[in-house]
Each structure stands twice: as C-alpha cells, then as structure tokens.
Amino acid sequence: MSELTLMILRIGFLLLLWLFIFSIVYALRSDLFGAPVRKLPSNDQASARQGTPPVPATPVVAAAAAQGAAPPVAPPITPSGGALPSAGGSAQPRVLVITSGSAAGTSLPLDDSVITIGRSNDSTLAIVDEYTSTYHAKLARSGDRWLLTDLDSTNGTKLNGSRVTGTVLVPTYTPVTIGTTTFELRP
Predict the structure, then answer these.
(1) Does 30 have pLDDT greater than 80?
(2) Closest-CA residue to 141 (of 170, 108, 114)
(3) From CA 103, how far away is CA 128, in angstroms rounded?
(4) 186: Cβ–Cβ under 8 A, 6 or more apart, which residues?
C-alpha cells in the first residue's frame, strides 16, 4: 500500500469513529433530556397550506362523505362488554379517567383544548412509565369531539387495541393505551 492510501484509510476510520461517538452522545442526550420537540401542524392548517380539504380521520368516514351519506356509527366498546350509561355514546366527554396503570382511578377534567401526554413534567397528563415517551401523544378538542395524535412515540399509542397512525377520533368509553396506562373519555 502506498503512503497516500494508508493516510486516507486512517482519516476515514477516524471520521467513522467520531461519527459513532456523536451518535452515542446524541442518544444519551435524548434519553436524559428528551427528544427535541417539533410542533406538528393541525390537520386543518396542513390542508390549508396545500389548498386541499381536510382529510377525515378514518377510511369509513371518507367513503361515507364521498357518497354524501352519514358515516355508520358503531356502538362503543367497553372492557366489560356491557351497555353504557349514555346509550350510543353521544354525550360530550368532560373527564379523562385512568382505568389501569400506576394512576388507576385518577380523573382529569377536560377543560383545556389540548392535552399533552407523556413522561415530561410539563405534560398535562404526566405518565411515569418506562414505556411512555417524553412527548408521547396529544388529545385535541375539535368542537364536541376529541382527536388523538401519536407524536412519533417509540412504543406507540393504541385506541381500542389498534395502533394509532396519524390523527383519529376518540369516542367516549373507548380505551386508549399509552405504555402500561389505559384511559377513557367519559361524560
């Protein structure tokens, strides 16, 4: 090998070593202080910038809207499988009730228009759980409805057992699972 080739290999390995060191430092910083927060545009803001109408939360709603019909309303599912006090689930949610996890039985009034959920101390609902991200999810009020958005969390957010991608509508009495904590919106 020539001197030039050997020097280029040494510099390449040195750069690769520093790349690994910086990636380890970044991972440690994220674990200790949380990942950088990025503000996600709401569905209405994103569509206004693109000049398109807002996209409905589910494909069933989109298909019904395209046909001009009202979307089908599925009965709410409860952990016990029984009937609900508000038949049909049409009552507006007023409280978030934690049904399982370390804070089971705790309730949070839905007074704010946006509720942030995560391990961070500045979250509206702080969940102390190793499976919850620092900024895990958010609930946002849209009229009488509540919309759930997963904020690119590591372990995901589940609505009634299905992983949430994007923004979805949260019906009353439907379980939402974040880490080991499950909660419902109730009237």
Answers:
(1) no
(2) 114
(3) 9
(4) 93, 94, 95, 96, 97, 172, 173
Cβ burial 34-70 (10 Å sphere, 16+ → b, else e): ebeeeeeebbeeeeeeeeeeeebbeeeeeeeeeeeee
Identity of residue 63: A
At 106, the pLDDT band (50, 70, 90 cuts) reads confident
The predicted structure's pLDDT at residue 44: 56
Please tell me the predicted confidence (pLDDT) of residue 79.
52
Percentage of the chain exceeding pLDDT 70: 70
Top-confidence residue, 61 or 49: 49
The Cα 52–Cα 62 span in angstroms is 14
Which residues, 6 or more positions from 73, have their beta carbon under 8 angstroms from its beta carbon?
88
Contact of 172 with 86, CB cutoff 8 Å? yes
> Cα–Cα distance between 160 and 15 in angstroms, integer?
47
